[in-house]
Specification:
With 677 residues, this protein is an alpha+beta fold. The protein has six domains: 63 residues, Helix hairpin bin (Helix Hairpins), CATH 1.10.287.610; 236 residues, D-amino Acid Aminotransferase, Chain A, domain 1, CATH 3.30.470; 76 residues, Nucleic acid-binding proteins (OB fold (Dihydrolipoamide Acetyltransferase, E2P), Beta Barrel), CATH 2.40.50; 70 residues, 5' to 3' exonuclease, C-terminal subdomain (DNA polymerase, domain 1, Orthogonal Bundle); 71 residues, DNA polymerase, domain 1, CATH 1.10.150.20; 68 residues, Rossmann fold (3-Layer(aba) Sandwich), CATH 3.40.50.10190. Helix content is 38%, strand content 19%. The chain has 26 helices and 22 strands. Strands 12, 13, 14, 15, 16, 17 and 18 form a seven-stranded antiparallel sheet that branches. A five-stranded mixed sheet has the order 2-11-10-3-9. It has a four-stranded antiparallel sheet with strand order 5-4-7-8. Strand 19, helix 24 and strand 20 form a beta-alpha-beta unit. Bound molecules: 2-(butylsulfanyl)adenosine (IVH). 2-(butylsulfanyl)adenosine binds next to strand 3, strand 8 and strand 11.
Length: 677
């Protein structure tokens, strides 16, 4: 082969490789190479194309950098109108929807549904002719939108060519297909974008949806190219040369052709299952990387969709079950100051009660004085309050138009509201702290954290009782809890013989925590739930964690300088050492005997294991430390590198993914047998 030919072959190979890896990354969410490896391929292609312009091609992935700007958008006609959806705001309205569907179809066969996350982005239609991206438009009025073909071509998540499977039983992309989906920005990318706009003195986008819309509707597509837009597809408009049977199979087919489809979509045999999907997503909403504002529930069978048809602007076969809004207006009645377990003073707004995201909110954090100053928040202000998932509600901004002039500015106190001790602001910190280590508020908060559900899980020891125990002088540190007898508690207000015994019993029950729970319970700075797991999994015993050096800690994946420093300084502080010794002397045995002994087992050794669902015999934590003790590595997410997935009850997407990837799955019974118990 001549040199030229070789180069041309390599260029084609690189283009194919990049298309393949785009597909793995965007459509399957399962990249098989690192970002650095991808960048290397991309750079090699850019260089070869620069050196050999004779091999340039308009459909090379390197062309995703934009096209010459246009003066205005051309109209883009939708052959099949893009409808909108009717909203349901409550469960009862979803049942109204399903009853209407049942009545209209009057079928003897069960009606199945598909539940999909309702992406909060911008709707687009992308037309593929003979499998090649031929045009793209926004929704507009549903009939005619704006032609954004050039812009859509810069979005790496949207393929220029649909895939034909090598498996001849799988159908090739049809002659013509208009796919519909939502273009969006991940929240993290939105924040990054806004930070750089702030640095450049440009106006900020209000939310990821506006940023996505603003990015897609650019006359200069090179601007779009610079924004990390993504997309999920969920439907089709005009199609020639293919028949879809159900929504669920359509989604699968779109994915096989290389289009990204939201993996959180679910096939539901009954409407109740769709409502479960809603409940599940509603609680996980805050931890998703992108914004969703509800769940779209669709009748699965497309022939039934056609029978149901549409009313003026929305179909009868689908409904958007919306989340309750997670922002609302309220008035700040007062600002109080809370002292946390590390002595940090947090200003908290006392609000007029307001419903946000489905719960009543009366307080919202203001973070610190700098934040209050930056947002210019005053007592008496009308403000916007946000609550996202289980995140503590926060005040986002003041509604300036509602100011009367009567509002009062707020200043952090110079004395700790709990102990009266001195309050300082250390250099380099944005927070104020009370430095008194015996401050009752700090002691109470530390004990409350120790006892909390995620830590030692001492049932019945809530903040009110902790506060009483400290005020009565019965408890001054967490170790004192284990010296309490029923007699100490009986005489306290609200306690009787029975409740005193119950509390002592549940304290008793916490004597054998997993190592991870124990490390988290200690409240070491920067060691949250996740890092406690990482440390426990790595060290297996408390002694090993206590003896770890900074270097050893930093060598662990996921542990940075800050955490390593904090762990070392925690265990070298004499007061903390005394406390841990005191807890051990009181009979606390973190890690238990089982995980403390390393007993490698050839079945488990070297395997990467992922747990999903609920086990009936032990917590996931414990299961994790037991297989770790046998030489396995526990991981959070399923990938091709996973050797085993242990599936408990109600296992969800991880199990699905395992099945898809052909990863071995152990049910609980088999798992216990393999553990030797
Ligand atoms: S289906 C006729 N599915 O919601 C049905 N829409 O209010 C048309 N959206 O314009 C839409 N996620 O921008 C559908 N999984 C999903 C969706 C979704 C977000 C948006 C879309 C549409 C709007 C309808």
């Amino acid at each position: 082969m001549g040199k030229k030919e070789e180069i041309s072959k390599r260029i084609e190979e690189l283009r194919e490789l990049i298309r393949f890896h785009d597909y793995r990354y965007y459509a399957l969410d399962e990249p098989v190479i690192s970002d650095a490896e991808y960048d290397a391929l991309f750079r090699e292609l850019v260089r070869l194309e620069e050196d050999h312009p004779e091999f340039a091609s308009p459909d090379s992935p390197t062309r995703r950098v934009g096209f010459p700007p246009v003066e205005k958008f051309q109209p883009f006609e939708h052959q099949v109108p893009m409808l909108s959806l009717e909203n349901a705001m409550a469960e009862s309205e979803v049942f109204d929807f399903s009853r209407r569907v049942e009545r209209l179809l009057d079928s003897h066969e069960p009606i199945e549904y598909v539940a999909e996350p309702k992406m909060d982005g911008l709707a687009v239609e992308v037309v593929y002719e003979e499998g090649v991206l031929a045009g793209a438009g926004t929704r507009g009025d549903g009939y005619v939108g704006e032609d954004v073909t050039h812009n859509v071509k810069t979005i790496r998540a949207i393929p220029w060519k649909l895939f034909s499977s090598e498996d001849s039983r799988e159908p090739a992309p049809p002659r013509l297909i208009a796919v519909r989906g939502e273009v969006y920005l991940d929240r993290a990318d939105f924040e990054r974008l806004n930070r750089s706009r702030m640095d450049a003195g440009e106006p900020l986008f209000a939310n990821p949806r506006n940023a996505a819309a603003g990015s897609l509707r650019q006359l200069d597509s090179s601007i779009t190219a610079g924004r990390p837009l993504k997309a999920f597809f969920y439907g089709v408009g005009a199609v020639e040369g293919f028949e879809f049977e159900t929504q669920w199979r359509m989604l699968r087919r779109l994915r096989l052709w290389g289009l990204p489809v939201n993996p959180l979509s679910r096939h539901c045999r009954r409407i109740e299952e769709a409502i479960q999907v809603y409940d599940d997503l509603s609680s996980r909403r805050a931890s998703l990387p992108y914004d969703i504002d509800g769940v779209v529930i669709k009748v699965d069978r497309l022939d039934w969709q056609r029978v149901l048809g549409e009313k003026s602007r929305s179909p009868r076969w689908a409904v958007a079950y919306k989340f309750s809004p997670d922002e609302a207006q309220s008035r700040i009645r007062d600002i109080i100051v809370q002292v946390g377990r590390t002595g940090v003073l947090t200003p908290v707004a006392v609000l007029e009660a307001v419903m946000v995201g489905g719960v009543t909110v009366r307080r919202a954090t203001l973070h610190n004085q700098d934040e209050i100053d930056r947002k210019d928040i005053r007592i008496g202000d009308v403000v916007m309050v946000r609550r996202a998932g289980d995140v503590i509600p926060e005040v986002i901004e003041v509604v300036a138009s509602r100011r009367s002039g009567e509002e009062k500015a707020f200043r952090m106190p110079r004395e700790c509201p709990s102990c009266g001790g001195e309050v300082v602001r250390l250099s380099g910190e944005s927070v104020h702290r009370c430095l008194n280590r015996n401050c009752p508020a700090q002691i109470k908060a530390a004990i409350g954290h120790f006892a909390s559900r995620d830590a030692m899980n001492i049932e019945g020891l809530g903040r009110r009782i902790v506060s009483m125990l400290v005020d009565e002088g019965l408890v001054a540190s967490v170790a004192d809890l284990y010296r309490l007898g029923p007699g100490d508690l009986e005489s306290l207000p609200g306690f009787g013989a029975k409740s005193a015994q119950n509390l002592v019993a549940s304290i008793e029950k916490s004597r054998q925590p997993s190592l991870s729970d124990f490390l988290y319970a200690l409240g070491i700075y920067h060691v949250g739930r996740h890092l406690a797991d990482i440390l426990a999994e790595h060290f297996l015993t408390l002694d090993a964690v206590r003896g770890a050096t900074r270097e050893e800690l930093e060598s662990i994946e996921g542990v940075g300088e800050k955490v390593a420093g904090s762990v070392v300084s925690y265990f070298s502080n004499p007061g903390n050492r005394r406390l841990v010794d005191d807890l051990l002397a009181a009979g606390i045995r973190p890690g238990g005997v089982r995980s403390a002994v390393r007993e490698e087992d050839p079945f488990w050794k070297g395997k990467t294991v992922v747990f999903t669902g609920t086990l009936s015999t032990m917590t996931r934590q414990e299961a994790g430390s037991r297989v770790a003790a046998k030489g396995a590595k526990v991981s959070e997410s399923v990938s091709r590198k996973t050797d085993l997935v242990v599936a408990g009850k109600d296992a969800g997407s991880k199990l699905e993914k395992a099945v898809r990837l052909g990863v071995a799955v152990l049910e609980e019974e088999e798992f216990l047998r393999r553990l030797g118990s």
